[in-house]
Amino acid sequence: MKLSRFLLLAVVITGVNILLIQALPSVVGDQEMSAQDKKMMEQMMKYGTPDKNHELLKKYVGDWDVDISTWQDPMAKPQMSKGSMKNALILDGRYVKCSFDGMMMGDMKFQGLEVIGYDLFKKMYTTFWIDSMSTSFMVTTGTLNMAGTVLTETGMSPDPMTDGKTMQKFKNVTTFISDGKFKFEMFMVMPDGKETKGMELVCTRKM
What is the torsional sign of CA 157, 12, 10, 96? Predict the structure, then answer.
């Protein structure tokens, strides 16, 4: 196997960033690249370069005040608390990293880390979430509406009542109200398709 072919395959497998892809010709040196290798480089450039869908990620950037509402009983009034988020683009705008600090269920300290991106292969937004109240990795995928104002994602999470033997489906909806304000809602989706709202975050960018 030629060195160029080996390096290109390594890029595909590991997801090495676009800088390495651009550097491959000089790394390969005098070794002639085959037409297949050149095609692979073109494809990696195509799927490794942010496009117009990544522009949405800029709407998350900044420091935010967060008003939190949580429901343990959907028929009761929500519990209210406060939080904050610090969000920044990472890896040359390919993703946005969101760091959350706040209180949940009234008086429980809560921290979370989120990474949001757009997958050019799947043509879907993908969100990765971890927090201080779980050891599970939560991943959701979804699409943006035509107006570019509502991002709807779905995912599955282990059900603690069954020791994780069954999965709970949930839906997350992010509505961009204005340039400096957005709302995040989480719904539990029951087996019969009914949705129960469990959490709402209203985020306002700090001045």
Answer: negative
Closest CA to 172 of 112, 82, 107, 89: 112
pLDDT at position 199 over 50: yes
User: What's the whole-number mean pLDDT along residues 95-102?
Assistant: 96
Confidence of residue 17 (pLDDT cuts 50, 70, 90): low
What is the domain-level CATH number for residue 66? 2.40.128.20
**Nearest alpha-carbon partner for 205 in 61, 56, 54, 95:** 61
The total number of structural domains that make up the chain:
2
Mean pLDDT value of segment 174-195 = 93
Element (H, E) at 11: helix 3-14
Q: What is the pTM of this model?
A: 0.82
**So what's the pLDDT on residue 1?**
45
User: Is residue 87 located within the same domain as residue 10?
Assistant: no
Using alpha carbons only, how large is the chain's radius of gyration in Å? 21
Range of the domain at 100: 53-205
The residue among 204, 200, 202 whose CA lies nearest residue 69 is: 200
